[in-house]
Write a structure and sequence with these properties.
There is one protein chain. This protein is of the alpha+beta class and about 170 residues long. Among the domains are: about 35 residues, no CATH class; about 70 residues, no CATH class. The chain contains 5 helices and 5 strands. Strands 1, 2, 3, 4 and 5 form a 5-stranded antiparallel sheet that branches. Strand 1 and strand 2 form a beta hairpin. The structure holds zinc ion (2 copies).
Length: about 170
């Protein structure tokens, strides 16, 4: 069985080996393939991590005040001081940037920001949904001396080819 696999490994072009590694036994795969797989697994983990931070919304625990009828992520001291009934609930937090001043805004439990941007106070309420992840400020050019697996390159690649983040090595 192992010998048969070894022949298959040799016959397959590299890309095919990469996508079929789940089927290969460690013995048949050999040192070179193993080290390549370790790289892929690390990349896979990083992609998953990336996906978790590129979501536009997140499920969070928040406090709902019955008296004020509003949600806050943290227990509101004023409400507590005034004896309002606070209940803990789960809600969706969304992330936005103000179209006018680029300030970051978050909302709880609503589809769209209902309040003016606290920085520029623009009345138009124009916001763009964004990721909770702020993103790398200075991307290194791909193919630099830092190596393919370096985080910055992966971020850059995912930005240019978002479909890559969807890839599962199966
Ligand atoms: Zn209250
Ligand atoms: Zn603004």
């Amino acid at each position: 069985m192992a010998a048969a696999f070894a022949n298959v490994v040799k016959a397959l072009p590299e890309a095919a080996v990469e996508s079929r590694y789940m089927e290969l036994s460690e013995d048949a795969a050999g040192e070179a393939v193993l080290s390549m797989l370790e790289g892929l697994e690390a990349r896979d983990a990083l992609v998953q991590q990336l996906e978790s931070v590129t979501h536009l919304k997140a499920s969070v625990t928040a406090w709902h005040c019955a008296a004020c009828n509003r949600l806050t992520e943290f227990l509101n001291k004023d409400c507590k001081a005034e004896g309002h009934t606070m209940t803990k609930t789960s809600t969706l937090k969304r992330f936005w940037t103000c179209d006018h001043c680029n300030a970051r805004v978050t909302t709880l439990g609503v589809r769209f920001p209902a309040n003016r941007c606290s920085r520029c106070n623009n009345p138009s309420l124009e916001f763009t949904a964004c990721s909770m992840y702020r993103g790398p400020k200075n991307l290194k050019p791909a193919g630099g001396t830092t190596g393919l697996a370096c985080k910055e390159n992966l971020f850059a690649t995912l930005e240019q080819h978002p479909e890559m983040g969807k890839r599962t090595f199966r």
